[in-house]
Give the backbone structure.
Amino acid sequence: MNKLIAYAQLVRLPNTFTAMADIFLGALATGLILRNWMVFLCLLVSSTFLYWSGMIWNDYFDLDQDRKERPGRPLASGRVTLRAAVFLAIGLMIGGLILAALAGIRFESSGIVFRWKSLVIAAFLVLAIFLYDGFFKATWAGPVLMGSCRFLNILLGLSIFSGAIPGWGWLLALIVGAYVAGITWFARTEARESSQPMLIAAALVMLGALVLTLAVPALAIEVSIDFQPSALFPYVLVALASYVGIAVLRAIRRPEPTNVQPAVKRAILGLVVLDALLASAFVGSFGLLLAILLIPGIILGRWLYST
């Protein structure tokens, strides 16, 4: 049991549902979640595997730092061996790419057709993961690259659509990517006292992403003829901003780990609500049900860290 908990901590299991929510968003916004359910499942598991792999590589490259600042983590404490972690990370990454390739297979009247879009996006996601974890995490490019990972994960979900990703799809990816870039910047020094100007700047990036969200319903109206954006859209947006903002302001006032880390945790879980909110612009209030993915994340987060 202790071994399973160690691996669950290693892959940040509570956060897995935020990556899944990205894929659900793409499938709901395109209206293809039922029609292309096999493709959807391949993309969902592919995203999960790539996310888990990225978390393992994160701890692999941070091992020396974690031994000083976070000695209780699975690799730093020796509860998971370095060899086992590397093999698992490689296996998950290969599995994620294979599943993305399978998502590109279409059975049409003319025969079997292979579309490269999902695999190409997954390959760029792998590249972004390695660039972030292995080379640029501690630089100014770190938050940008982490935001790019989420940007690409949204595009991976939208690749369920066989045609070119539409303009509104790129906007969805930009919103989520910018929000995550802000979280990453905010969390940069979460293990020690943070700089107030840095936290303020990161909070403004997150706020900017939420402001961009206001443009989505107008675009969605032009896309969907069967649904209207949820009437709850502005209220949920305000609730999300308040839920995250209260913790963020508390951390800015007193930038200690005990305040910054809970704010980061709230912002990460808020990703699921953000995805649900964006989905509700395309499929109405039904899209808000995506927020159900918060439940397992919150429950697991009581026992497993997520930052």
